[in-house]
Amino acid sequence: MKKLLALSAGALLLWQASSAQQKMVADKIIGIVGEKIILKSDMDGALAEQQRNSVDGNIPASAACQTMEMLISQKVMVLQAERDSLPVSDGDVEGQMENRIRYFEQLYGSKEKMKEITGYSVYQLRERFRTPIREGLLAQAMRNKIIEPVKVTPSEVKRYFDAIPKDSLKFYESELEIGQLIISPKATREMDQYAIDRLLEFKKRVINKEADFGSLAILYSEDPGVKDNKGVYVLNRNDKNTWDPDFLAAAFRLKEGEISSPIKSQHGYHIIQMLKRQGDNVTVQHILVRPAVTKSDLSQCLAKLDSIRTNILANRYTFSEAVAKYSDAPSAKFDGGMLQSKTGDGTLITIDQLDDPSEKDILMMLDSLKPGQISKPVQFTDENGRTSTRIVYLKTRTHPHRENLTDDYSRIQQRTLDIKRAEAINKWLIEKIPTFYVHVDPEYKDCKHISQWMSQLAKQ
């Protein structure tokens, strides 16, 4: 089951820069490059990140080697960038840091709530972000310097393509680029109050020992996962990208056995019971009640979408501009309303990737939509079980085909360029690594590139 209170993956990426600074006291040094160290916690954090971002929750057996190679190469690039005095100004660092902190303020609603959830003040976050941001900028500047001269010619692209065995050429199903503009109906103040009053009644019944919290959750909670987990979740204080910030903050304010007052999140209203607290982990149980929306509320949303659609068709603004201005989808600020491929192909998706229940009705629209067309407003049930409205935009549609230079040149060109850039970076590392002191834990010395690098060091 998708976690009920999941936020955008964008938040996850923004925490990566600071995660390297969060070390346990008893950590292990697994690598040294110059005066910079690589800790076991760096490796564990990177692998956990990859696992969370993978489609099936699995990572390849080579992930540890690839991650260690990435960590070493980043340190080398940072050190060489410092040697070369590549321009990374304090202003660049401060600018990125302020953007990052501003993002979290917007995400959590205020500086106070941000501190409550993260455990850090703005000053402390700046101190935590400063070094990883500077090193990230230095490494990126060095990488850009290495790969900037690397180009590929049409003949190189053709040579790469011709070397692929014909029976190994990729087969592409019909692929589509699909956008959606979502407007969610807002419940009235009366419906909000009704939801709050129901939760207060549930809390009263539990406190008076007239009912069991878990039984009430099974009977009344609108959390889609309640049948499987009775509304019980294990939360970690650092899972700021995973849970709604108001829900997370309310949970960590509770003492064991305490039940919260009704809490509003992006999904509705909750009461939360603290079952167990253990370090940065807590086990909680919750009941979710969503304020009901009326037919009138839905009709207003559909009318608004119809007006937006009319303006797009009249070229008063583009679909993407309309999404930026009107969409209620939390992910719209990151994806521009375009559905994302689950195999890493950007916005190109296949029909079988429309497997989320909230996307099923899009399948039914595809037969009547031609590329460039926008559907009429429709009502649908979103991934959290709420009734909402949207218009759907079919941007492009391709036909099933075996990979070829005519239809897929840009993809083949990009793969050719990626390979050539990777070769250039590895060649550069083989030349530069011997100029630094490098120590690698024996566990990683047999990794392909690390073995090459250490061989070069041994020759010095």
Plain-language structure description:
The protein has 460 residues and is α+β, with helices and mostly antiparallel strands. It has 17 helices and 13 strands. The strands form four sheets. The chain has a four-stranded antiparallel β-sheet with strand order 9-4-11-10, sandwiched between helices. Helix 7 crosses helix 16 and helix 16 packs parallel to helix 17. The longest helix has 26 residues. The N terminus is likely disordered.
Helix/strand class: alpha+beta
| Number of alpha- plus pi-helical segments | 17
Beta strand count: 13
Shape: globular
Radius of gyration: 26 Å
What percentage of amino acids are in beta strands? 15-25%
pLDDT averaged residue by residue: 85
How is the largest sheet built, in terms of strand order?
Answer: 9-4-11-10
The ordered string of helix (H) and strand (E) elements is HEEHHHHHHEEHHHEHEEEHHHEHEEEHEH
